[in-house]
Amino acid sequence: MDPTGYLLVGIGGFIGATLRYIVAGMTPKRGNVPTGTLTVNIIGTTILSYLTYSHSLQHLYLLNIGILGSFTTFSTFAYESFALLEQQTNRSFLTNIMLNCMFCIVGAGLGQLMANLI
């Protein structure tokens, strides 16, 4: 990758992490389920799917890898899910996993649908 690619990934990472912090912080919590992480994962998956299926590779470094790579939060999802399991809140643990998986897969499908329509 040329130096410009590294710069674009870094700038995108800064933007994505900042957006994640803002969006997750503004998302109201529902019980023990970490809805902020769920929200950013759904949004990020949908946008990434749209960009991928629309073949918008000119934005690969900045948007796909940089912004969306740092905006989505699979590592946070895994940590928060494990914490719910440790706290023995089994219902919240299962709910969190099911919601993230279901809605992010739906988001991937929506992204493909939008790319095909546009």
From TrEMBL:
Membrane spanning residue stretches: 6-23, 35-53, 59-85, 97-115
Protein name: Fluoride-specific ion channel FluC
The entry's keywords: Cell membrane, Ion channel, Ion transport, Membrane, Metal-binding, Sodium, Transmembrane, Transmembrane helix, Transport
Chief location of this protein within or outside the cell: membrane
Functional summary from the UniProt entry: Fluoride-specific ion channel. Important for reducing fluoride concentration in the cell, thus reducing its toxicity.
UniProt feature coiled coil, ranges: none
InterPro entries for this protein: FluC
Gene Ontology molecular function: any one: metal ion binding
Residues that hold Na(+) according to the record: 69, 72
Membrane topology per record: Multi-pass membrane protein
Gene: fluC
Reactions it catalyzes: fluoride(in) = fluoride(out)
GO cellular component, one term: plasma membrane
Activity regulation comment: Na(+) is not transported, but it plays an essential structural role and its presence is essential for fluoride channel function.
Alphabetized PANTHER family for the sequence: FLUORIDE EXPORT PROTEIN 1-RELATED
Family label: Belongs to the fluoride channel Fluc/FEX (TC 1.A.43) family.
Upper classification of the organism: Archaea, Methanobacteriati, Methanobacteriota, Stenosarchaea group, Methanomicrobia
Example GO biological process: cellular detoxification of fluoride
Keyword Kinase appears in the UniProt entry: no
Claim: Protein biosynthesis is one of the keywords in the record: no
Subcellular locations according to the entry: Cell membrane
